[in-house]
Design brief:
The chain is an alpha+beta fold. It contains nine helices and ten strands. 32% of the residues lie in helices and 24% in strands.
């Protein structure tokens, strides 16, 4: 906790009157308890209460005046303004980004801009308690749509929706940075939205679906020893598809060491073809983040 910017935290609490008319659990202690719960894998409020009570002699050293009851913690979680935690998370993320700004990505070339991986994870909930998050007939769920900065595996954007929201729809609200790379799986393959990303000056790397329909315009020379089978400039077939993405796309066919053939689509024409495959390989960091 010595590394927590408490001055910034105090300003945020004051901004949203987080400690107004509070006598039992101030925001600083609330944060310490929830951080403790996260770092020690507590599973419930009862679990938090039991473990803190079992270590009553150490609470003062943790910055807590006394053990907290689960009812008090439940009330604080429900009533304290959530924007306190959102704004403070943004402060911590900005600090962490500076620490990992120069972290290598294991690519053959250095990329100066941001490199993000986008994916979602579904979290099952009880339908009787979370009726606002419909998913199936007998189950509720939320989706955690996460944009992960691959330098440091730091979440840069998180959107929580009900379980029925399609992954591709999050592209409509995703903040786009010119010059940044967005690595996505086939679930985000929507040419209208990808063209919007292209017009914003951002780069994307994704995989083609089995029914991808395009014609070759130009083929670049490749070194097949790198696993790249072809590096082509293509244009979409079909009136609607060509209207959705009227410019050329780059198609890279790559055979991985296990023998699987992968087809990547990107709007970046400058990077070597093997680096496109390396970028997509880094997408697995977001899968590990959810685990």
């Amino acid at each position: 906790m010595d590394f927590v910017p408490w001055t910034s935290f105090s300003r945020i609490v004051a901004r949203y009157s987080g400690d107004a008319r509070v006598s039992t659990l101030p925001s600083t202690e609330h944060f310490r308890i929830m951080a403790y719960a996260q770092l020690t894998w507590r599973e419930s409020l009862r679990d938090i209460e039991a473990t803190l009570s079992a270590n009553a002699t150490k609470l003062y050293g943790m910055g807590l005046r006394q053990a907290v009851r689960r009812s008090t913690l439940a009330d604080a979680n429900e009533r304290r303004d959530w924007r306190i935690w959102a704004d403070f998370a943004a402060v911590l993320i900005r600090r962490a980004n500076k620490l990992y700004a120069d972290e290598p990505l294991g690519l053959d070339v250095n990329i100066a801009g941001k490199v993000y991986a986008l994916d979602s994870s579904t979290i099952d909930l009880c339908l009787s308690l979370f009726g606002w998050a419909p998913f199936r007939t007998t189950k509720a769920a939320i989706k955690l749509h996460t944009l992960l900065d691959l330098r440091g595996s730091i979440p840069s954007f998180i959107h929580i929706s009900d379980g029925k929201m399609g992954d591709v729809n999050v592209l409509d609200i995703l903040p786009l940075e010119a010059g940044a790379f967005y690595i996505m799986d086939r679930g985000y393959l929507d040419f209208t939205r990808l063209y919007t990303m292209h017009q914003a000056g951002a780069f994307f790397v994704t995989r083609a679906k089995s029914n991808f329909n395009a014609r070759r315009v130009y083929s670049a020379k490749v070194d097949k020893a790198t696993g790249v089978a072809c590096d082509q400039s293509v244009i979409l077939n079909g009136v609607k598809a060509a209207k959705d993405y009227p410019e050329h796309l780059r198609r890279v066919r790559y055979k991985d060491p296990t023998g699987n053939t992968l087809i990547f689509l990107t709007n970046n024409t400058a990077l070597p073809a093997p680096v496109i495959a390396q970028l997509y390989k880094n997408r697995w960091q977001v899968e590990l983040f959810f685990k």
